[in-house]
Amino acid sequence: MSAQQPPSADRRAFLKGAGVAAVALPVAAISQPSPAQTPPAAAAIAAQNGPVGFQSLSLEEAAFTEALVDHMWPKDELTASGAELGIAAFIDRQLAGADGQGDRHYLQGPFRKGKPKHGDQLPLTPEQYFKAGVAATDAACRMKFSKPFDKLAPAERESFLQDLAAVRVQGGSIQLGTWFNALVCPLFVQGAFADPIYGGNRDKAGWKLIGYPGLPAVYGQDVERYRGRAHPRSATPQSIQDLS
């Protein structure tokens, strides 16, 4: 983060950039959503969606994941927190689904130790890999701060995640930098900007933030026309459920 910008401004700029890369159509990001695009307050979203049950994550893993996404997408005057937007629920659903269970993944040996740029060479499904990383990350937090990640203060979380992303945290057999950058961060971005039918991006808040009109996917011709500003239809984006 820069010294000139507050953390919330820096992080919002990052989320907008990540969202533009994540959505299916290359509609450009905007500098700030208009009042008509501002998503509902956090309380309204939480009341609308009700409590979330987890299919894959244990209570401890869910606490870690919710604390992580809340820090990476903090609540402010424009959106609810990451957990309230369903990002943790999205991650849980993906881990419990076919891909998380290893469908179409090569899981037969030999699994030799490679170079850091090769990533972890492990006979694990994405679900097993995520859970192993959570356990190793929490262990590293307990060693450094004498408490798990979800109990850290915001400044401690920020410092720890900066070290994690920069591959400065040791995780035993798990390369935690690779785990965080190659598995956790993509899942976070997908949960923030995927179609709400998959559990995240509740009330299409991620789409409204970046000015994305949603479906149907027929806006390719508008990329140049609305580059640098919101699409006219992004105040009421359409999801798969809206068109079903």
Can you characterise this structure?
There is one protein chain. The chain is mainly alpha-helical and 244 residues long. It has one domain (7-243). The protein contains eight helices and no strands. Helix 1 crosses helix 7 (176-193), helix 4 crosses helix 7 (176-193) and helix 5 crosses helix 7. The termini are far apart.
Mean of the pLDDT scores? 81
Structural class determined from secondary elements = mainly alpha
Model regions low in confidence, pLDDT < 50 over at least 5 residues: 1-6, 23-51
Instruction: Give the H and E element order.
Output: HHHHHHHH
| Oligomeric state of this protein | single chain
What's the number of structural domains?
A: 1
Helical stretch count?
8
Helix content: 40-55%
Rg on CA atoms, Å: 19 Å
Characterize the overall form: globular
Query: What's the number of extended β-strand segments?
Result: 0
Question: β content, as a range?
Answer: under 5%
The major pleated sheet works out as: none
- Termini, distance in Å? 42 Å
List keywords for this structure.
mainly alpha; 8 helices; 244 residues; disordered N terminus
